[in-house]
Amino acid sequence: MTARSGNRPSRGRRKAWARDGFAHIEIRGARRGLVTAEHGRLVEETVAALRGVDWAAWNAALGRLIVSYDEGGVDLGDLVDAVTEAESGFLADGASSLDAESRQRVTLAADVLGAAGSFVARQLRLPAAARELTALVTLVDHIPGVRSRLRRVLGRHEADLLVSALGATINAAGQAELSLLADAGLRGILLREMSAQRDTWQRRSGELTRTATASRAARAGGDRPVELPDGPVERYTRRVSTVTLLLAAAATQLPSGVRRAARVLMAGAPAPAHTGQEAFAGGLGRLLARRDVLVRDRTALRRLDRVDTIVIDADVLTGDQRVITHVAPVEGTVEAAWEAAARQVGTPPVDSDDGWALTELRHAEHSIPDPVLKDARAHDGSRGVLHVLTRDGTAVAVVLVEDALDPLTAAVIAAGRRVGRVLLAGAPADVRRRVPADGTVPGGSRLAGSIRALQADGRVVVLVGGRNDAALAAADCGFGVLHEDRRPPWGAHLMGGPGLEPAWLLLEAAALARAVSRRSTHVALQGSVAGALLGLAEVTEAGARRTSIATAIAQAANIAGAMWSVRGLSRRTPPTPAVDVAWHALPVAEVMRALGTTPHGLDEADAEQRRQERATTDAADAPAGRGVLGTIVGELDTPLTLPLAAGAGVSATTGATTDAVLVLAVILANAVLSGIQDAAARRALQRLVSEAAPTVRLRRAGVDRVGRIDELVPGDVVLLEPGDAVPADGRLLDATGLEMDESPLTGESVPVAKSTAAARAEAIAERTSMVYAGTTVAAGSAVCVVVATGAQTEAGRNALIALREPPRSGVQQRLRELTKASLPAAGASAAALLAAGLLRGRLAESVNNAVALAVAAIPEGLPFIATAAELSASRRLSRRNILVRDPRSMEALGRADVICFDKTGTLTEGRIALRSVSDGRSRLPLERLTPRHREILAAALRASPAPNEREALPHPTDQAVVAGAATAGVGTDEAADGWRAVRELPFEPVRGFHAVLGAADAGQVISVKGAPEITLPRCVSWRSDGKVRPLTRTDRQEIEAEVDRMARQGLRVLAIAERAASARGRLDDERVERMEFLGLLGLADPSRPSAAEAVERLRRAGIRILMLTGDHPSTAAAVAAELGLLDGGTVVTGPELDGAAGDEALVDALVSKASVFARVSPAHKVAVVEALHRAGHSVAVTGDGANDAPAIRLADVGIALGEQATAAARQAADLIVMDGRIETIVDGVVEGRAMWASVRESLALLLGGNLGEILFTVGGSLVSATPPLNTRQILFVNLMTDLLPAITVAARPPKHVSPDQLVREGPEASLGRTLTGNVVRRAVATSAATAGAWLTAKATGTNARASTVALASLVGAQLGQTALLSGGDPIVLGAAGASAATLVGVVQTPGLSQFFGCRPLGPVAWGIVLTATAAGTALGALRFPLPLPGGPPPHRDEGTGAPA
């Protein structure tokens, strides 16, 4: 509110408000630096002396005095009077200045009153003032330095108000209501921003200013070391002002030159671009205020579109929460010590009178045994702080404690990366290890210097900090994170929190701000071009009115676009917090306590309450997608939309409304088609996800039942059996022989043994006490408690690594390049037409004709071609078991030159199979086993569980042995007639082998199959060829060498042993001894039979194949050698990539030489893809696991394999190969390459036809007094030849072409010189044939007849070329025939013919048309040499598009 000091004298009005006993009073001149610290103390002392005032604090950062007072003893007016009296000692009467809100209110009032007065004047038919007077106002922005000089003289807000008021007055006098209303809309947005921010300050001020100390702040800020770099709007302003001034000077030389120059100045005004920037910042400011963000300096939001560097003070990433990562007991158990220490690191620590205490090791005076210290320090280093846990003064354990990261750390880092580089300031080693930033800078007292150094290097910096006022003020946008127990960071431009969610929203907004500003400049440019053309076309007042309307429409469009962007930002789902708890390292009792559950599970009421509390964050786990309307609006953001819309607007303003409607209809139809397809693809994906969703067995209140996966909440108890997919991350409570297939998460194809003991390992693959979502139970059973669901699981958190913007679609990029080429061509043709008209003295008519040609020359069918080709290819792939989530990924698949395959399940079958049998010296494959090797395999079969006909064996190793024996024709009775099982000792991870006691005709035998390191020590002899001899040390070394050789070749090795046994029926561990060693089995994940052929086909297509796997290097190398993948390349491991981290050149060198990457994590896969991108490759990545999702997302095209692909992989992928076969991927590549060939031919038709139209129209205009075709005729040509024929060519697959020919297609082969040659050839053929027909008709008849003949010949020549190109495709021929029939109908139908400026033709004229059509078709098929750079284009079969 604005307060007066009651009835007492006051020095005018000032901003002052009070709430809950706290008053905020503006000090005049503070914002302009007129109030020093000494002045501030004077005001403090004056106000503090008043009766009823508790304290007063001068806050120079806010420019306010903050007062705590007794509302019953003193009122706000008294406080304001006291401030006024204090000000009189150091401020003159003129120190008061206009504030931003008052300026906006006055400007809004002027706009509204002006619009109302203009409307009344128009209704009364009062004469309007010349709108050209607006040029006087635009000169303020066109001439560098004028506005800044006015601001220095008058004050910032006063100068801006003067310019705005002058503009409103001129627009009102000129009856320019649209301009006034557009500006009023902007002022309304800015006033709503200020109102929301004021409300937030008043609502939250009490929590920030509880004490005088917390309320005081010195003046923040300082000069940047260099001038702030220009953003998109500032660069546009400089360029457009320079061009506008030059054009205005040239326009003065034309008739009525001063008026035309003024209109050029009006059209070139940069205001529409600034309007988009301001509207977005205003909407964002209001959104932030509604999210409880305090905005101290609104100008910081206006700089977001320039930001390229994010600095995050590490202090805000860690709070009071701490976590235990290791315990080394001095006495007692790890579990007991951990539980006691966990109570001490809680927030707040649990009070107890049992004597427990936790003290930093450096401050402790206890004697710790050396082995304990050694154990603890082995886990220390950069990982936290060592503490001593004591009880009653006695050391119990050494505990490693780390600061817990804020749950939104990963989300903030990901959002920052969408803006630019992310740097950590003042980060200790343990934080640097856990936060994936791009670098570090000095923090603390040196942080402000770090910010200035970055600015000196040309960076624009956002700082997210907590307490460093100087650094926050030095940043271009400083965001201060509020903390309940800390002084507010008054130096920040914005403050929010507690927590990082507001900072995340700001960074999301920064990425969006740049896009909004760029879009605003594009819209402003189109408005300026349209306004200039309209103003030059008509000397009368109508020309000035049209110029004003064009710029006002651009301004209104930018306001609408900015607010739409803010609306989308406001609807983004807040990120899901990631809990930083080392569940794997906690004892079971501590896990249960932290989750508030028991081994009996939650009761239903508690579970439902937790589910409701998580409903909002669970929504974030669902696949994101825009609605159909949002998708349609997004599809309108194409390179051609703005120029087409601007051209349509010019046509409509000049009276060609029908032409404008036709163009806009094409734009909207393309967007609607794409929107519907996108919605259909998302529905198909959601059906897939829904159908694949498994059920779970959970325990609620001691009762086991089957439930849905979406019922799970942390604290639920889940039961797991063999074959179950784990629905959520869980901590094991009980495990019986549990082995997990974690290949979807880690890439490791061998099952991993699990137990309930707390695990101290950091790597996910070594956390033996945990089970993770997306993995599968390979053997055994377990009970676990859910610790994370959805996006909080390890699989979900992996996806955060991939939250970087994916590369732009290749077809879209090519279209942008073609558009850049077509727009200058259209502009040049329009300029030539305008010049021809000027030479003949017909300026207005020539401008209209030039605008019409520019509109018609732009290929409005261009967006349709990509859409049609991609949708058609997507439908064809759906019949080949490939679900295309984003049709635009088709072209990326077609241009891919590197494919990164996951090994497990893609190149291999994803299962363990028996590959070979060794007798300890020689190894043979299954198909060539000798009797001795068959005896070994028979013993292994006897040492396996008996198969059950109703269900498969639970352990994959047993399945492999049984299947392998069946393949080799080996049975249990081989070398043991009449054998049958008596007792079984099942495999358990701690046991390491499986033993069976069996009875044969010759007596009982014990058969053992297990790990060599477990089984060999139990052997005392070696049986070979029926002979048994003692097992010597040399024999053991020989066997171990064989085991090592097999392991290096990627085999999992099992040792087989057997011995005769007594008649006792007992079997236990003690009886498995004195065994006779028989031999070894080699098992591996077999490569797919078709993989080698598929790899070879891809290589023939010029595609480099890389294997990325989490498996052992030897295993990966063996598979690669089998498939021929190495080809001179090397095997690079994850640790090697880690060693090169931070050195992009070294990483690039490793990647360039490698064919196989082993032991790689999700981050390693991302690093490989990034290196390939830096090398200029187009990359496809395949996979089916959560560990593949980040790289899948970052690739140019991501491919998820199989219906069993994890949700993370499916959601990151562009394509889902339903059958998971590598051959299907090859089919997809072929289809993608075929799409490029189809697009090439379609573009050749479209661009060649348009270029032919331009050549003919411009050439005809040079030799004729009037253009040979009018606007509607040219647009009709485009509609007949661009849409239906070109789209059908793009949609159909190339005919009579083999797959091996198609795989040689691609962007360079299809859209390079070959396309250029085709375009030029068709353009020359079309224009020459049409010119001949037009000249012939002109010589034998009227101009109207000649124009009609030219129209029909132009269409006929292009349709003939389309028919020749069809290769007999009935759809293409039908489209060409339909267009031809439409042409004849339009020309021959009276009324309709006249609408297009035609006249019905007779037999002679149609004969000329047919002759020209045949000539254009024949010329288009000729292969005459073209002077294209780089040598002659490759010879191709015109009918197929394939190499001849």
Automatic annotation (TrEMBL):
Pfam families: Cation_ATPase, Cation_ATPase_C, E1-E2_ATPase. Keywords: ATP-binding, Magnesium, Membrane, Metal-binding, Nucleotide-binding, Translocase, Transmembrane, Transmembrane helix. The keyword ATP-binding applies. It is a multi-pass membrane protein. It catalyses: ATP + H2O = ADP + phosphate + H(+). GO terms for cellular component: plasma membrane. It comes from the Bacteria. Residues 1267-1420 form the Cation-transporting P-type ATPase C-terminal domain. Transmembrane segments: none annotated. Residues 209-220 have a biased composition (Low complexity). This is Haloacid dehalogenase. It comes from Dactylosporangium sucinum. The lineage of its organism: Bacteria, Bacillati, Actinomycetota, Actinomycetes, Micromonosporales. The gene is ctpI.
